[in-house]
Amino acid sequence: MSLNLTNPIAGEGGYTTTLPAGTHWSLVIRRGMGLTLTDLEGGANVGLLMYNPTQLSEKYNAPDSLKCQHTFKLTRSHCLYSDMGRIFCSIIKDSFGWHDTVCGNSHASHIEACWGNRDYQNDRNEWQQNGYDSFLVELAKYELTRRHMAANVNFFSEISTDDEGNLQLSRQAQAGDRVTLRFEMDTLVVLHTCPHPLNHADQYPRSPVQITLAPTAPLQADDECLNLCDENRRGFANNALYHLGQ
């Protein structure tokens, strides 16, 4: 992993690291920070969950995020909601344009069925991790378990249906595609770079993902995420009440 911190005392620094495929990562990202995910080689998938670090029972709510914005996909101008009606983050930049939040995680059984059974004891860094177990490893660091898991986002994965109504992975990012999330409240972010559960490629995907953290500009009255719909304005109002007096 690479580390790039500049002027950290003044609070103006940024952070960059690269995650190989099949790995996991977590961090409390502060309000006002931006998280940029970049697919470096194409074909990556980034599974992501979010929690309130001071009230861990508050977590990302996929159904509300889609329902209140009248969408089946996530892309620029969309907000990602908690189950308390607050907004964890907003998508302020997006070169890919279609991110899944309905298909969930890959499990060990999916990985074995597609690419065979490999484990860390025998294969070390060439083993084939799955998204579900990756989340469990990171959640355990915060005394969270599988019962705290929710439906996750799958960044860089587009979903469509065939003529029989079956879901399928129809498109993935190309090298250089990126998405930026602006955090509207302090948020525990848990993510992995394991394959999408509908990925049936010939080989286990090995595309690395770059993570960049940097401050973002303050929310303005003409912000496109704020003004996308009435529900988003209510969500930001809930955030304002939550932060009142801080």
Strand runs, count: 13
Q: Unreliable stretches, pLDDT < 50, 5 or more residues?
A: 1-11
Termini separation (Å)? 35 Å
Assembly context of the chains = single chain
Structural class: alpha+beta
Number of domains: 1
**Which band does the percent of strand residues land in?**
25-35%
Helices and strands, in order, run as: EEEEEHEEHHHEEEEEEH
Major sheet characteristics: 6 strands, antiparallel
Overall average residue pLDDT: 93
Strand order of the biggest β-sheet:
1-13-3-11-7-6
Number of helices: 5
Fraction of residues in H or I helices: 10-25%
| Radius of gyration, CA atoms, in whole angstroms | 18 Å
Describe what this molecule looks like in 3D.
With 246 residues, the chain is an alpha+beta fold. It has one domain (16-242). 17% of the residues lie in helices and 30% in strands. The chain has helices at residues 62-67, 108-115, 120-123, 131-140, 230-242; strands spanning 15-19, 24-29, 33-39, 46-52, 55-59, 79-81, 87-94, 153-155, 157-161, 167-172, 178-183, 187-192, 209-215. The strands form 3 sheets. It has a 6-stranded antiparallel sheet. Strands 2, 4, 5, 8 and 12 form a 5-stranded antiparallel sheet that branches. A two-stranded antiparallel ribbon has the order 9-10. 38% of the residues are buried.
